[in-house]
Records
---
Amino acid sequence: MAVAGRLSLATRNASLATPSTATSSKITTQIEVIPCKICGDKSSGVHYGVITCEGCKGFFRRSQLPTVSYSCSRQSNCTIDRSSRNRCQHCRLQKCLAQGMSRDAVKFGRMSKRQRDSLIAEVERHRQQQQQQQLQVDAQSGLAYHTKEREDCSPQLLQPMTPAYCSGESELLSFTSDVHPYLLCTPNQPQVSDMIYRSSGVSPSSRAHMRGDTSGHSEIRDELCDSIVRSNKDTCQYRAEELQALKWKVFSREEMQAYQSKSVDEMWQHCAVRLTDAVQYVVEFAKHIPGFRLLSQNDQIALLKTGSMEVVLVRMSRVFNAENNTVFFDGKFAGTEVFKSLACGDLIAAVFDFAHSVCALKLTDQQVALFSALVLINADRPCLEDRGKVLCVQRSVELGLTHILHRDNRDSLMHKLYQRMSVLRSLCSLHTEKLRWFSQRYPLTAHCLFPPLYKELFASEAELMLLPGATH
Ligand code: HC3
């Protein structure tokens, strides 16, 4: 797997939602020349990751309320334009999702250099189109036209646009400059006690040293556990109270039928967007696991590529109601029937069984957090550059998990958690298999309509990029 070659991360600092540089603010002031990607009305900027008008922005915001659910009374293929946009909320929402709108785009919507250049090119292309139209009008009305600006146009800027979902740059990691406590260690020192905190001037270990006591080790371990638990809580996607309040809110028969009458590719696209949202939270979780950021970027990516789907599946147990076998999906609790049109019943059944089996372990939030960290930081994953360093972080997480299980009088859980880990591996292989089947059958959807992050995570395994000219 050519991780280093394909995934360049260095330039991923500009935020699409909150542009901070001069270039970004220049782009935002000019974005309005591009019509709303949903209905074609006049746009007002980038909202939820896509250029839209105020109307579609508000519509998308309202559509994300947990109580909202739309269905189409026709064939789910209504035309959405300025005049028809209010006729079918279902198809309008589908178009928003297909264009890549996501409520998480505000939080995670970082713009890569490629995307920024692409946007500048699109702004320029539209500006020129408008100018061209004006020139034609002027010519017809006999007006002279020669502007310096026209002569200066770079041919580069006139190149065809790459659709947002067809860009080839890494979506996996966006590096922010926020400082979090992190651990530093070398491959030859794989113990928590050998790690050095670099977050503040004086580390817990040196504080302990100065006091001459041995409690420093446990202090470090406790800080590591706290950090992972906090990170898990901050990135868990849904608040416990929210889930509790909606626990018995299941999809109605009509709503379920609306999902079931979606075409296979439509449902795949829908689920791919939902899955990608969940993965983005996992990526944020990973970035705050002490020690993760000290790994090379390629190793961080390699761990996320193999582990993020597994963590999504672990997290599924938190949003799973084992009493009626439903999962929180699109604002309500959904049974396996909701996913029928994906046409992969065996995968869905296996994933639901897994969630059930994790629920049966009755893990605390702390145990789930440490277990998730251990699923991610695994030195046995393929393509790691510095396996020793990964092992070092893995050991520290293992020690943390062992400690909290011991403290909670649940030592015997460790063995069961390792068993669950091997089930996770087979679930992901099955998922990859399904994706391979789907991308052979619907190459266009897989190539152009799946979120870039989804493709980046699963592409190499499932050969999603089957189209000629696709970036490998
Ligand atoms: C059902 C789901 C896996 C679980 C995902 C969960 C429930 C996980 C916990 C998050 O907090 C919320 C969440 C959102 C999306 C859920 C996924 C949607 C589809 C996926 C199935 C396993 C199908 C795989 C979809 C495919 C084939 C397109 O990749």
---
Amino acid sequence: MKNKVLIVYTGGTIGMVQDANGSLKPYPMRHIYDVVPELRSCAYQIDTCQMENIIDSSNMTPSNWIELAEIIERNYEDYDGFVILHGTDTMAYTASALSFMFKNLTKPIILTGSQLPMGVLRTDGRENIICALELASCREAYIPEVCLFFENRLYRGNRSTKVSAENFDAFTSYNYPSLALAGIRFSFKKHLFLKRPDKPLEVRKNFDRNIAVLKLFPGITPNAVDAILHTKDLHGVIIETFGSGNAPTEPWFIHALEDAIKRDIIILDVTQCKAGSVILDQYEASCDLSRIGVIGGNDITLEAAVTKMMYLLGTYPNDHDHVRRSLTYSLRGEMTIPNENPHN
Ligand code: ASP
């Protein structure tokens, strides 16, 4: 029997056309065979479906993540793998969000897109779709993860980040190696895959949007910090700090964070550096942060930090201690730390 892959189309450049003013706008895709006719002769069966509204990924929200997860959940038993066609702008956020939503995943969910629309002669979309489909249908590898494929690499979804609005290799993963490379053949690095779970799939569908990101810069004012930390209904904040998690040691800044923590707001420290890790207490400039209860985000990406915090606050709204603890664990391979939390 042929392997089966379901393509879920969400929008993005890959399916866009130019409007009368020359701007690119999302367009409903007809069947994938009309766009990539070569796929008619591939060895696996392809079915397609699309999100209710086809969007530029700048408009993605947690409701869209839930819609996507429900499409996959409904079809989970009937397909060997899933390919999500998605705009590149927020693809790493959706990949991260889905990774947290699908607990005990045993089948590949691969997001891809393109920098040029399919109708353009030099489009990168054709290669990206074909490779993503090959990977999603590949019994040899059978990757039990949410991944992102772009240009010639397969990344763990919650480790990936968009790095170029210009080049075809628009994504990278600074803190974890790619899981597979597409050359003449695919070379898989199976030792880097997540372990295949033997428990039943669980799909978690709650996100709490009441979080904020506070990006530090030299000269940031108390007014700016206070405005973020006093956002109405705020439950969590990600502070983007310097280097290995450092921040100003000025008393007004530390007091503002301490006051927020006393108001039960969870604060996670993520570095502005692209590669490397937060190490609280390595410098004096992070000692106060750990003393007052800021949580170190290790080497997590901002995309994974945002979606993980929304996911944990949404899933355990009445147990902030559990949320705090879970932020220190790797739930789906999003951080390089030995202790994985079996309970999440
Ligand atoms: N603005 C587009 C989107 O993210 C960009 C792309 O698809 O590459 O939907």
